[in-house]
Amino acid sequence: AQSVTQPDIHITVSEGASLELRCNYSYGATPYLFWYVQSPGQGLQLLLKYFSGDTLVQGIKGFEAEFKRSQSSFNLRKPSVHWSDAAEYFCAVDTGYSTLTFGKGTMLLVSP
Amino acid sequence: NAGVTQTPKFQVLKTGQSMTLQCAQDMNHEYMSWYRQDPGMGLRLIHYSVGAGITDQGEVPNGYNVSRSTTEDFPLRLLSAAPSQTSVYFCASSLAGTSGGGSYEQYFGPGTRLTVT
Q1: Longest dimension (CA), chain B
Q2: Chain pair A-B, CB pairs under 8 angstroms
Q3: Does the pLDDT value for residue A83 go beyond 80?
Q4: How far is CA B1 from the centre of its chain?
């Protein structure tokens, strides 16, 4: 069965420091992968997506993610975190008919 | 375009009551789906639809019914609410995937926060 694992429930990063959020997936076919962000009490916003081609994907708000098939990973990165990046981040894999299987999320805290 | 709209934003029900969560989209998307979000669980798929008249179950369908009579609307029904259905519910829609595989971006609604006492 398809699954998505986000190993870190919480991560604290200092403002201005770099960020990497981990995501591992299990899916039999070529995966279509997504990262979403959710601020408290808000809906989901798509940061970036990978369908095929270049394994380094650029997204909004300065985020990027790298697809590594050999490691079944799709880690999210940002070179310099801003206080406004504090939110919960979800990795997801398309499991057919545009339905998504989500990871359990990683809460990002940004310290001054 | 209004995108994906959900009503109500908040709802409190008593155990055993029934209600319908509304979801509508004005983007002519074929695919629509319902998710529930619980703390520490991420989002889990309840039901989905690939077009008018066609629905299927997701990961957590028990206690929920859906129908899709039009392309625009995809209501979610709770026939007899239980405290375990306290959650935030999100509706999403997207264009159908291409024949070569892949999927288009899912557009999510703002969510409905449901409390069952």
Answers
A1: 47
A2: 67
A3: yes
A4: 19
**Are A32 and B108 within 8 A, CB to CB?**
no
SS3 helix, strand, coil % of chain B, rounded to 5?
5, 50, 45
The band of B99, judged by pLDDT with boundaries at 50, 70 and 90, is: very low
Query: Could you give phi then psi for residue A70, rounded to 5 degrees?
Result: -65, -25
Counting beta carbons within 10 angstroms of the beta carbon of residue A53, is it exposed (0 to 12), middle (13 to 18) or buried (19 or more)? exposed
- List the one residue out of B80, B57, B54 whose CA is nearest residue B67: B54
pLDDT of residue B103: 59
Place of tokens 């979403």: A36
Q: Read off the pLDDT of residues B24-49 as tens digits, 9 standing for 90 and up.
A: 999 999 999 999 999 989 999 999 99
Cβ-based contacts of A9 with chain B (< 8 Å) = 40
Which residue is associated with the tokens 């940061």? A47
